[in-house]
Design brief:
- The protein has helices spanning about 1-5, 15-25, 30-45, 50-65, 70-85, 95-105, 110-130, 130-145, 150-165, 170-175, 185-200, 205-210, 220-230, 235-240.
- It is mostly helical and about 240 residues long.
Length: about 240
C-alpha cells in the first residue's frame, strides 16, 4: 500500500518513511521489521539522508546480529561509507555535516591505504573551506594511530601546512621535527625545510630561518628568503634578493 502510493506520488518520501517507522514500532522483532528498515533505508538514500540510512542499518545490525539479512546490511553500511568518503559522494554535503557523519561512523574506516586516502580527502576538503582546526584534528589522529614510516612523514608535512595556515607556527615546527627523514626524496625534504623556515620566520627567528636556506639557490628558496628578509624588516637584503 505504501509502495503503491509512493509510486503514484500520492505521498512524499518523508511521509512514506514516517509510515514505515510507525509500522516498524508496531511490529518488532522479526523479518518484517528488517524489511521495513530496508525500505526506509532505500528512501533515505534516495533523498541523500545518508546519516539516517546508516543509523537504521546500524540499528538493524545491533538488534538482529548474525542473520544473513543483517550481515548483508552491515556490508551495505560499509559500502555506503566508502562511497561517501572515498568516491566523493560526501562532497554534496556541507563540510560540517560531512565531518559529523564521519565521526559518527568512523569505526567503518577501512584499514590501510584506502582508509588513509579517505581521511586525507576529507581533511583536504575541510582545509579548502578554512575549517583548519577540524582538518588538523583528522590528520593528527591519522599520524598518531594509523601511519608509520614515509607515509607518516608525508601526512605530518601536510599537517604542518595546515598549522601554518591556521597561524600556529610552534605546532608546525614540532610536527616537522618529529620522525626520521633520511629515506625521503629530495622534493619532500626541500618542502619540509621551507616549511620550517617559514615557521621560524613567523616566530621572529629570522637568522635561524635564513640559516636553513643558506645552501639552497633554487627559485623557491630565493622567493622564501626574500619574504623572510621582508618580515624581518631587512629591506636592503629583501630588495637585493628580489632582484
Amino acid at each position: 500500500m505504501i509502495d503503491a502510493e509512493r509510486e503514484q506520488e500520492k505521498i512524499s518520501q518523508d511521509e512514506a518513511i514516517g509510515r514505515y517507522e510507525s509500522l516498524r514500532f508496531a511490529w518488532r522483532g522479526d523479518s518484517v521489521e528488517l524489511d521495513l528498515i530496508d525500505r526506509t533505508v532505500g528512501l533515505e538514500m534516495n533523498k541523500q539522508d545518508y546519516a539516517g540510512a546508516m543509523r537504521h542499518l546500524r540499528a538493524a545490525v545491533s538488534n538482529f546480529p548474525k542473520t544473513k539479512t543483517t550481515l548483508n546490511m552491515a556490508e551495505r553500511m560499509k559500502e555506503i561509507f566508502i562511497d561517501l568518503f572515498l568516491n566523493g559522494k560526501v562532497d554534496d554535503l556541507p563540510p560540517i555535516s560531512a565531518l559529523a557523519l564521519y565521526f559518527e561512523f568512523k569505526e567503518l574506516t577501512p584499514l590501510g591505504k584506502q582508509g588513509d586516502a579517505m581521511i586525507q580527502r576529507l581533511a583536504d576538503r575541510l582545509a579548502d573551506v578554512d575549517l583548519l582546526d577540524r582538518a588538523a584534528r583528522l590528520l593528527e589522529h591519522q599520524v598518531r594511530y594509523r601511519l608509520r614510516g614515509a607515509e607518516k612523514i608525508k601526512v605530518q608535512t601536510r599537517l604542518a601546512v595546515i598549522y601554518l595556515l591556521d597561524a600556529m607556527p610552534e605546532k608546525a615546527l614540532k610536527i616537522l621535527e618529529d620522525g626520521k627523514t633520511k629515506s625521503l626524496d629530495g622534493a619532500l625534504l626541500a618542502q619540509r625545510r621551507y616549511l620550517q623556515a617559514r615557521a621560524l620566520s613567523e616566530l621572529d627567528k629570522i637568522d635561524e630561518a635564513l640559516a636553513l636556506l643558506a645552501a639552497d639557490d633554487t627559485a623557491p628558496a630565493k622567493l622564501l628568503r626574500a619574504d623572510i628578509y621582508w618580515r624581518g624588516q631587512r629591506w636592503a637584503s629583501a630588495a637585493e634578493t628580489t632582484e
